[in-house]
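Minutes, project huddle
Topic: does the predicted pose make sense with coenzyme A bound?
PN asked that the exact inputs be recorded in the minutes so nobody has to dig through chat later. Recorded below.
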Amino acid sequence: MRSLLFVPADSPKKLDKAMTSGADALVVDLEDSIAPAGKAKARLGAVAFLEEVTAAETRPYLLVRVNGLQTGLIDADLDAIVPTRPDAIMLPKAEGGASIVHADAKLAVREALSGLPDGHIKIAAIATETAAALFLAGTYAGASNRLSALTWGAEDLSAELGAEKNRDTEGMLLDPYRLARALCLAGAAAAGVPAIDTVFVDFHDIEAFRRECGAARRDGFSGKMAIHPTQVPIINAIFTPTPEALRHAQAVVDAFAASPDTGVVGIDGLMFDRPHLTRAKRLLARATPRRKPTAG
Ligand code: COA
Ligand code: MG
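Predicted holo structure (tokens), as shared on screen:
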């Protein structure tokens, strides 16, 4: 999944527009873009939207960002949205594998009540929004088969740390948030799920956004979250492997296939060993066409 576009659940206009944005996934938001007094109305908005679009023949992958386990709001969120069969929830303020186990149990009960297969609804977790979460980023492996991605956030973390800013005057992330970003990458790799880069809030600064997408791809993220439709085509372009990169990856895979007993091969005067093979296979896997998940 390359691009995941956030859409506040209380805006039918933005929900409509998001469907034609070209995003691989939409994240219908019940959490931070919705004021406390608006939660009930936002739930109704999410339900109306999902009821209309989940059964569509062609549609983006559909996630709902519910309120966190700590809020007392998540049960009402799940009661409302599980019957509409979203593909996944996004769990904010996750604190390690234990919170995934907790959310898994809540989903399993409601799937049973709605006649959905156990495990139908996946979980993408935002893994760095509290200080405690940073110390638990390595605990996601094996928590639940529902876990499908890890992402990270700098806004809530900076509020919790009491920081004035999370970026310097040039727009570069400051140390605590670079750590959070790196922990997300390592935590996702350790859990065997893709890492998705966080949002970039200055949606008018397209050049800075492009640079941040490039850095994310370089470092191992497989996609990025968007807050505005203009960010979507940039993410899609940068996270789609180029034909040249695919040809190169295929050449590495072919060279190892031709000599299965060897640990190292030479291609065009450069050495490639097993880690290069892993990287090449990953790139080829990313290039396979994305389809909406088969209904369960
Ligand atoms: N999804 C779908 N459509 C969106 C959108 C989004 N995330 N953000 C903006 N649009 C639409 C607007 O409704 C507007 O539509 P129109 O041309 O038909 O009027 C068009 O895109 C241009 O929007 P623009 O005027 O540039 O921005 P805005 O001032 O209307 O909205 C935000 C700015 C930040 C409020 C808006 O982008 C937004 O709500 N983003 C998502 C916020 C969110 O979910 N945050 C939580 C995660 S951090
Ligand atoms: Mg938040």
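Observations noted during the meeting:
- The mean pLDDT is 95.
- The chain has eleven helices and ten strands.
No decisions taken; revisit at the next huddle.
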